[in-house]
């Protein structure tokens, strides 16, 4: 699989990575044996970048990856985790002492002395402009607890604030055919600064697979049931913040763009990979089959130019509601 440099980390990572929120929580139950099958299938398909967080299953996702990595020391993996959502979302909690506490826990969960990449996990907006926060992150790098740091953001303005900081190695942001605003300023600014872009929620929580209908139901412990209106966390994390029924309609239009031999999901992933400045895209998977199919998106020939059609779908269905908000 094609490898790209992940911004200021200097690490080469696969253009299709693996998001592991599903393996921790909030997407229905995933058995441990199924989780290991997903990790193994992704690695065998050439995926070298796993993304996790300390709150996914209260550390379950990190622990599973740690055990997998220990069993496969031959694999050239880069593991990114996230921190900052184990406490109340108060900017006062983003201190060096808390960072040490959180990263020490992640190091234990992942079974490593030095974390490859730690990202602030969509913290409150004021955190992104706090000098002391970046000083604390620089201290963790100097101490050897983390090799690099980045941020995960909800808004483009937060991304731009982080990109302007010299120590920021990467920015993780929602980018997909239903969330185009990062193309305007964030990706160009990241390219200019040498900051990596990790594209998350690439399938709009599954909408862009084209498999869902207006009647599709999700289990009670799936965020696509309980967070449709932002009841638990930012609504942008669920279906990219788009109205579900409108998303189903738009997903049908997008599915019609898939070239022969591509599934709608692979088309959606390949379109993101083709955007200048993207380092890696991190779809999740609940099965080995899904992990393999996602990885295949990196192996197809270049897509025809889908940008005009993608922008037309976005302008028709989502721009008015999405562009001003995130």
Automatic annotation (TrEMBL):
InterPro entries in the cross-refs: AKR2_Oxidoreductase, NAD(P)_OxRdtase_dom_sf, NADP_OxRdtase_dom
Domain NADP-dependent oxidoreductase residues, every copy: 16-304
CDD domains membership: AKR_AKR11C1 (cd19086)
Protein name: Aryl-alcohol dehydrogenase-like predicted oxidoreductase
């Amino acid at each position: 699989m094609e490898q790209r440099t992940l911004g200021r980390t200097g690490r080469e990572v696969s253009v299709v990575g693996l998001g592991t929120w599903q393996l921790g929580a909030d997407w229905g139950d995933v058995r441990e044996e199924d989780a290991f099958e997903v990790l193994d299938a992704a690695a065998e398909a050439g995926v070298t970048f796993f993304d996790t967080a300390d709150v996914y299953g209260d550390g379950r996702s990190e622990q599973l990856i740690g055990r997998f990595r220990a069993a496969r020391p031959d694999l050239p993996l880069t593991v990114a985790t996230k921190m900052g959502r184990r406490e109340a979302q108060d900017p006062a909690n983003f201190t060096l002492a808390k960072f040490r506490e959180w990263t020490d826990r992640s190091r234990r969960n992942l079974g490593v002395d030095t974390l490859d990449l730690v990202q602030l996990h969509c913290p409150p907006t004021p955190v992104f402009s706090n000098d002391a926060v970046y000083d604390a992150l620089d201290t963790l790098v100097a101490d050897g607890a983390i090799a690099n740091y980045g941020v995960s953001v909800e808004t483009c303005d937060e991304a731009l604030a982080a990109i302007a900081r010299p120590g920021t190695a990467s920015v993780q942001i929602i980018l997909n055919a239903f969330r185009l605003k990062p193309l305007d300023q964030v990706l160009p600014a990241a390219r200019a600064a040498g900051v990596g872009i990790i594209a998350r929620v690439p399938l709009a929580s599954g909408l862009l697979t084209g498999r869902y209908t207006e009647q599709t139901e999700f289990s009670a412990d799936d965020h696509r049931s309980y967070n449709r209106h932002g009841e638990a966390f930012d609504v942008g994390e669920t279906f990219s913040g788009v109205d579900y029924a409108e998303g189903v309609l738009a997903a049908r239009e997008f599915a019609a763009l898939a070239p022969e031999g591509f599934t709608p999901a692979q088309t959606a992933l390949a379109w993101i990979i083709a955007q200048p400045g993207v380092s890696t895209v991190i779809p999740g998977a609940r099965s080995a089959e899904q992990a393999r199919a996602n990885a295949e998106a990196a192996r197809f020939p270049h897509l025809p130019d889908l940008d005009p059609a993608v922008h037309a779908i976005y302008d028709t269905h989502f721009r008015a509601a999405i562009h001003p908000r995130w």
